[in-house]
Design brief:
The complex is a heterotrimer of chains A (351), B (187) and C (111). Chain A is globular, with a radius of gyration of 21 Å. Chain A contains 12 helices and no strands. With 351 residues, chain A is mainly alpha-helical. In chain A, helix 6 runs parallel beside helix 12 and helix 8 packs antiparallel against helix 12. Chain B is mainly α and 187 residues long. The termini of chain B are far apart. Helices cover 69% and strands 2% of the residues of chain C. Chain C contains 3 helices and 1 strand, in the order βααα. Classes of the chains: A mainly alpha (351), B mainly alpha (187), C mainly alpha (111). Chains in contact: A-B, B-C. At the B-C interface, helix 2, helix 3, helix 4, helix 5 and strand 1 of B face strand 1, helix 1, helix 2 and helix 3 of C. Strand 1 of chain B pairs antiparallel with strand 1 of chain C, so a sheet runs across the interface.
């Protein structure tokens, strides 16, 4: 039994939106309230994401410490809960350095080019039924396409820093992202085929009966391949070669400090959370779930996927570079092609 | 009484009356066209190849926006996914793999520049003359409403009327892939 | 969401301008990769033209629009991808041979 949609607790954002719209309509002319509410909505989503990122940092450090038999941050605040806040303050107070010989424009623009798409993706990710800034009918591809701009930003950062380690990191990013983008996009097409639409809301609606992950035999394979390719896309361990400390110091963001570094950091965690959200929407039934409100289910599942990513990070060692490329082209790519073909057959037979 | 549940934030275009939507569409088109042309100019003027690539990314992104305004949503996403996500990254990769000693000039000598500009102006003039003098069947059409987007229409076209070109295109991609591998391989 | 059409000529002029700028770039530039990028720009100008036409040719009344122009744009993008891959491979092979990507260095066939 699911939360009734017309019950306030289940749908607070929509009632809030309706109330604000009525309030602003009393003294603003026609397009005014919509514009104001768009700005309010964007600010709201960004704030929520910032809070989520801080909670992610704390969770990740504590969980990885637990997996590795350490304590993790536990000094600032109860259980170290205020540690992320302290980190933010530290980052904001740091000196902002632009290295000598760097390409100034590229160096300044790169972090923005990385963080803007990461946040923009959340304009079309629905938290519940109809609960997104807008629902595009090419939603899935839009999310994956926005990632391309971030990649350009990362490569620019590596190139503009005038540092050979940064350049190496940038080149690794370019190769890795091109390689893993293909299985990722193809596996995102499996739910699209099953649902017959590319709108994220539509895909969730199509899973009302059976979650895509339970559609045998393609569902589980698609989920695993999508998750693995996505981990590589967001440069997380065990695919974090672009920023491998032991080989190329810190990779593309080696020369960045202070606020600009914080932007890369923010984008990385937002992207990780986006992977969780996409996995939830494409394979795990989105916001569907009993009793609790839809948006709570959405965030619970997304956070669950994030915990799996943390678990993987704490468990697996980093790949070697040739292993990374071999894995993408010789393992993931054939599997994803076969899965897509199988899905097409299955959809045709079921129809 | 509680207000009606509404989408969290309705889209800007969807919620404004038609007159405003038309105006906003036109404004968006000209702004994006300006950005695209600025990027193209930057591509020509910039002295650094990497800056060339960044300017081209600006143009490609703006053209994707223009595609949205022209009612080609699927094509816009494909444009970003393939041009920005694959071709430009490949080109940036190529730029990084071919470092040059010293600061070699990116553009040719004055003669080459003059020849290029003259040729481009001649081509542009010819096309503009055709565009302005020809009589077009429909100078401006009525608003098109495609609630489901263009994706399924394009898919139907590609696999019915254009099935043969589609297959040829796939063979072309295969040949290009093998050719690129053979050419770029270490001898 | 209804699409409000832009006057056909404006789209065509933008396409023509992008094409000409790309042509100028392809003729002026010396770096082989920059020339490749200029050619991509020309192809994009063509795409803008195709999509403008697609918007103004909705097909028979009552029928869903045919979008032939958009289909052509998809083929152009395909060709552009193939061209970029082969072009870059040639540039890399030439760079390995001469350690430069300046096109005027490739003059060994000149008598």
């Amino acid at each position: 039994m699911s939360c009734p949609a017309d019950f306030f607790v289940c749908n607070p954002f929509q009632y809030l939106h309706g109330g604000l719209l009525a309030f602003f309509s009393t003294f603003l002319p026609s397009p005014g309230p919509t514009i104001v509410l768009t700005v309010v909505g964007v600010a709201f989503i960004t704030t929520v994401l910032a809070i989520i990122v801080m909670s992610q940092v704390w969770t990740e450090r504590r969980v990885v410490a637990m997996l590795q038999g350490r304590l993790g941050p536990n000094r600032v605040g109860p259980q170290g809960l205020l540690q992320p806040l302290a980190d933010v303050v530290k980052l904001l107070l740091k000196e902002d350095i632009i290295p000598f010989g760097a390409d100034r424009i590229g160096f300044v623009l790169a972090p923005i080019a990385v963080v803007a798409p990461a946040l923009a993706v959340w304009s079309i990710i629905p938290w519940g039924p109809g609960l997104a800034v807008t629902d595009l009918n090419v939603g899935v591809l839009f999310v994956l396409a926005l990632g391309a701009f971030a990649t350009i930003g990362i490569i620019t950062a590596g190139w503009a820093s005038n540092n050979k380690y940064a350049l190496l990191g940038g080149m690794r990013v370019a190769a890795q992202l091109i390689s893993y983008e293909i299985p990722q996009v193809i596996m995102a097409m499996v739910p699209v085929l099953l649902a017959g639409t590319m709108s994220l809301g539509g895909i969730v609606d199509a899973q009302a009966g059976v979650w895509n992950v339970l559609v045998l035999p393609v569902g589980p394979i698609a989920l695993v391949v999508f998750l693995v390719a996505s981990i590589a896309e967001v440069n997380r361990a065990p695919f974090d070669l672009p920023e491998a400390e032991s080989e190329i110091v810190a990779g593309f963001h080696i020369e960045y400090s202070g606020m600009r570094f914080a932007l890369f950091f923010l984008a990385e965690y937002v992207n990780t959370f986006t992977v969780g959200a996409l996995t939830t929407l494409l394979f795990l039934g989105g916001w569907a779930g009993p009793i609790l409100p839809p948006f709570v289910w959405f965030f619970l599942k997304t956070y669950g996927v994030f915990l799996v990513l943390v678990w993987i990070r704490g468990t697996l060692p980093r790949l070697r570079y040739d292993q990374l490329m071999e894995f993408a082209w010789k393992a993931l790519l054939p599997i994803s092609f076969a899965t897509l073909a199988l899905t097409a057959v299955e959809v045709t037979l079921l129809k | 009484m509680l207000p009606e549940p509404a989408p969290l934030v309705a889209t800007l275009l969807g919620a404004t009356p038609p007159m405003n939507a038309e105006l906003l569409t036109a404004l968006g088109f000209y702004a994006l066209a300006g950005l695209a042309l600025a990027g193209a100019l930057g591509l020509i003027i910039a002295s650094d190849v990497f800056h060339d690539a960044l300017f081209l990314v600006l143009t490609l992104g703006s053209v994707a926006g223009i595609f949205v305004i022209l009612g080609a949503d699927f094509l816009a996403v494909v444009q970003v996914l393939i041009y920005v996500g694959a071709i430009m990254i490949l080109i940036l990769f190529g730029i990084m793999l071919t470092p040059q000693l010293g600061n070699l000039p990116n553009t040719g000598g004055p003669g080459q520049i003059a020849a290029g500009v003259i040729a481009a102006v001649a081509v542009l003039g010819t096309i503009l003359a055709v565009i302005t003098t020809a009589t077009w069947p429909r100078a401006s059409a009525a608003p098109i409403d495609l609630p489901a987007g263009t994706t399924s229409l394009l898919g139907t076209s590609l696999f019915n009327s254009f099935a043969l070109p589609f297959e040829v295109a796939s063979v072309l991609l295969l040949i290009a892939m093998i050719g690129a591998l053979v050419i770029a391989r270490e001898p | 969401m209804p699409i409000y059409p832009i006057a056909l000529q404006h789209g065509l002029i933008l396409g023509a301008a992008l094409f000409s700028l790309g042509l100028a770039g392809a003729l002026i530039k010396r770096n082989a990769i920059a020339i490749l990028m200029a050619i991509e720009l020309m192809l994009n100008g063509v795409n803008v033209t195709f999509v403008s036409f697609a918007q103004h040719m909705p097909g028979a009344p009552g029928q869903p629009p045919e979008l032939t122009g958009q289909v052509f744009a998809i083929f152009v993008i395909t060709v552009a991808a193939a061209e970029a891959a082969v072009g870059l491979a040639i540039v890399l092979a030439s760079y390995r041979l001469r350690h430069t990507v300046q096109i005027d260095a490739s003059s060994s066939l000149r008598g």
